[in-house]
Amino acid sequence: MKCLPFALVMLFVSSFLWGQTNWRAEWLRLNLTDAETSQLISLVKSTQPEIERDRAERSIVHAQLERLLLEPAPAMTDIEALVRSGADWDIKIRLLRIGRSLQVRADIGNERWALLSHLAAKVSEAEKLGKHPLVSKASDKTNTRELFLLLEDFN
User: Fold this and answer.
1) Is residue 20 domain-resident?
2) Which candidate, 36, 47, 88, 151, has a CA 20 to 30 Å from the CA of 138?
């Protein structure tokens, strides 16, 4: 019974280490051709400017709300309008990202899309920890490095 905590810690550490060292294997399981990789990058790049603009607009609305909340007696109608406006920008951004994801799914199929989504989530998690997986190891002739940088905003 005393070994159980140690076993759990070892399981956690080994799964963490496996996750850190297995990026390349998971990436290779996608088996994307150079053409598919380029197509994915083009799709993400084509939608990214609109998403970035919308995020900037959302940030402006959030700043306006913060400024309004600093006033001594802000009107609730003004607060509600800004909150709704921010929510509208969030919805627009989310719909753009979903549309892009559905297009990727149509282009590469359900199984590879699921794996790509999983890898994108791992990239996001790694970014939160201050680490960027695979990018420093990407040395093949495909656009792997660029694609993984773009996967940060895939889902």
Assistant:
1) no
2) 47
Per the structure, the complete domain to which residue 144 belongs is given by 35-151
> Does the predicted TM-score (pTM) go above 0.85?
no
In a domain, 141, yes or no: yes
So what's the pLDDT on residue 114? 87
Within the chain, which residues score under 50 in pLDDT?
Answer: 3-19, 21, 136-142
| Residues in the chain, total | 155
- The 8 Å CB, 24+ separation contacts for 102-111 are 103/43, 104/40, 104/43, 104/154, 107/36, 107/39, 107/40, 107/43, 108/30, 108/32, 108/36, 108/40
| Inside any domain, residue 129 | yes
Would you state the structure tokens that stand for residue 87, as one six-digit string? Answer: 């929510």
CA distances from 42 to 32, 78, 107 (A): 14, 40, 12
pLDDT tens for 91-104 read 999 999 899 889 98
Gap between the Cα atoms of 31 and 151, Å rounded = 16
